[in-house]
Structures are given as structure tokens and as C-alpha cells.
């Protein structure tokens, strides 16, 4: 199934967490699920922290990109953008906060839910809940900021 990440242009599709063109990355897909957003991911055994449990850095990374993907979905909705080819709004993480409530068991599918708690013209706050085996293991909050198409390119790139 496609996610918002499939509507980023190629030069914004290299992200380790969500870039569809990063063969070493997580390649997550984020979608609406009613009024909330959802991303699913199955950790591999090499994502281990201690045997049986998922490494926290991976979980933070999933929340990070679920947050930016959710922000892009919310901005597209707010601006009445019909997703097609590479016209998705692109957001970067300004702030990421993660709380580990319980060790996250490895081996089953992780589900991350997102609630859009604040949205302005350029900024979206997303509250995230990460579940494994139907157990709430991690919560997070992402503040994502909309960036222009030339974000990250050298200022004089068009002179070369
Ligand atoms: C290197 C990146 C490559 C990504 C290419 C693009 C790819 C897109 C598609 C793929 C998605 C992948 C994304 C994955 C997720 C990452 O891993 S992204 C990598 C980690 N993040 C970064 O490197 C971002 C570094 N920071 C920045 O570039 C700049 O600080 C930002 C975030 C663009 C904001 O700068 P700015 O545009 O000058 O922002 P500014 O006008 O001051 O603030 C805008 C709003 O955000 C708020 N804000 C800004 N910073 C913060 C903060 N730290 N805490 C709270 N609020 C804040 C401000 O208060 C303001 O709010 P309002 O006043 O409007 O209510």
C-alpha cells in the first residue's frame, strides 16, 4: 500500500526513516486511519536492545518519521492538495520527544498512531502512540515544520 512518502519528490525520498529510495532505510508508509494517522513496521531481530526487546533508537526513528509523514498528510488536507506524483508537502523535524513506558517486545508488528494536536500554516504538532502486541509501549511528540522545495540545497546551487 502507498503512503504519503510515495508522494515526495525523489530528492526528498532518501531519508533513512521514510525515504522510499533508501534501500538501507525503514521505508515506512504513513496513512490516514479515520481522524488519526497510522504506520506499521515489523522490527528485525538485529533491531535488538536486549534479547526479546526492540532498540529504543529505532523506536524514536519510527516516531520521528511517522510524525513528519503525519504532518505532511495534515498539511495536504488543510491545503486541499490532492496527492499525485510528487506534490506532497515536505516537513522536517524541529523537535522530537520520546517516552519509553514499557519495553517493546520484538517479533510482532508495531503500530504507531498519530493525532494532529496543532496545525498552523507551517508547523504541525503530532502526538504519537506506539503499540506492540496491543500494548502501549512508547509515546512521543513531534513538531514538524514545512520546508521549501530547495531545502538543504546550497544557496548558489543554480549557479554551477
Ligand atoms: C537535514 C534534513 C533533511 C530532510 C529533507 C527534507 C525531506 C522532507 C521529506 C522527508 C521527510 C524526512 C524527515 C525525517 C525527519 C528528520 O529526520 S529531518 C532531520 C532532522 N531535522 C533537521 O535537521 C531540521 C534542522 N532544523 C531546521 O532546519 C530549522 O530549524 C527548521 C526546523 C526548518 C525551522 O527553521 P525555520 O524555518 O527558520 O523555523 P522558524 O520560522 O523559526 O519556526 C517555525 C515554527 O516552528 C517552531 N520551531 C522551530 N524549531 C523548533 C523547535 N526546536 N522546537 C519547537 N518548535 C520549533 C517555531 O517556534 C515556529 O513556530 P510558530 O511561531 O510558527 O508557531
TrEMBL record:
<comment type="similarity">
    <text>Belongs to the THEM4/THEM5 thioesterase family.</text>
</comment>
<keyword id="KW-0963">Cytoplasm</keyword>
<feature type="domain" description="Thioesterase">
    <location>
        <begin position="52"/>
        <end position="135"/>
    </location>
</feature>
<keyword id="KW-0966">Cell projection</keyword>
<dbReference type="GO" id="GO:0005737">
    <property type="term" value="C:cytoplasm"/>
</dbReference>
<dbReference type="GO" id="GO:0006631">
    <property type="term" value="P:fatty acid metabolic process"/>
</dbReference>
<keyword id="KW-0276">Fatty acid metabolism</keyword>
<keyword id="KW-0443">Lipid metabolism</keyword>
<dbReference type="GO" id="GO:0016020">
    <property type="term" value="C:membrane"/>
</dbReference>
<keyword id="KW-0472">Membrane</keyword>
<dbReference type="InterPro" id="IPR006683">
    <property type="entry name" value="Thioestr_dom"/>
</dbReference>
<dbReference type="InterPro" id="IPR052365">
    <property type="entry name" value="THEM4/THEM5_acyl-CoA_thioest"/>
</dbReference>
<protein>
    <recommendedName>
        <fullName>Acyl-coenzyme A thioesterase THEM4</fullName>
        <ecNumber>3.1.2.2</ecNumber>
    </recommendedName>
</protein>
<keyword id="KW-0809">Transit peptide</keyword>
<keyword id="KW-1003">Cell membrane</keyword>
<dbReference type="InterPro" id="IPR029069">
    <property type="entry name" value="HotDog_dom_sf"/>
</dbReference>
<keyword id="KW-0053">Apoptosis</keyword>
<keyword id="KW-0378">Hydrolase</keyword>
<dbReference type="Pfam" id="PF03061">
    <property type="entry name" value="4HBT"/>
</dbReference>
<dbReference type="GO" id="GO:0016790">
    <property type="term" value="F:thiolester hydrolase activity"/>
</dbReference>
Amino acid at each position: 500500500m502507498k503512503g504519503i512518502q510515495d508522494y515526495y519528490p525523489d530528492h526528498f525520498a532518501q531519508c533513512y526513516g521514510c525515504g522510499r529510495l533508501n534501500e538501507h532505510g525503514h521505508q515506512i508508509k504513513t496513512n490516514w486511519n479515520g481522524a488519526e494517522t497510522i504506520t506499521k513496521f515489523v522490527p528485525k531481530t538485529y533491531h535488538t536492545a536486549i534479547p526479546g526487546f526492540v532498540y529504543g533508537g529505532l523506536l524514536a526513528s519510527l516516531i520521528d518519521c511517522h510524525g513528519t509523514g503525519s504532518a505532511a498528510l495534515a498539511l495536504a488536507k488543510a491545503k486541499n492538495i490532492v496527492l499525485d506524483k510528487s506534490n506532497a508537502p515536505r516537513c522536517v523535524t524541529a523537535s522530537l520527544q520520546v517516552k519509553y513506558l514499557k519495553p517493546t517486545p520484538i517479533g510482532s508488528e508495531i503500530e504507531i498512531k498519530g493525532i494532529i494536536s496543532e496545525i498552523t500554516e507551517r508547523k504541525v504538532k503530532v502526538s504519537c502512540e506506539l503499540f506492540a502486541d496491543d500494548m502501549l509501549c512508547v509515546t512521543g511528540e513531534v513538531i514538524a515544520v514545512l520546508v521549501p522545495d530547495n531545502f538543504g540545497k546550497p544557496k548558489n546551487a543554480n549557479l554551477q
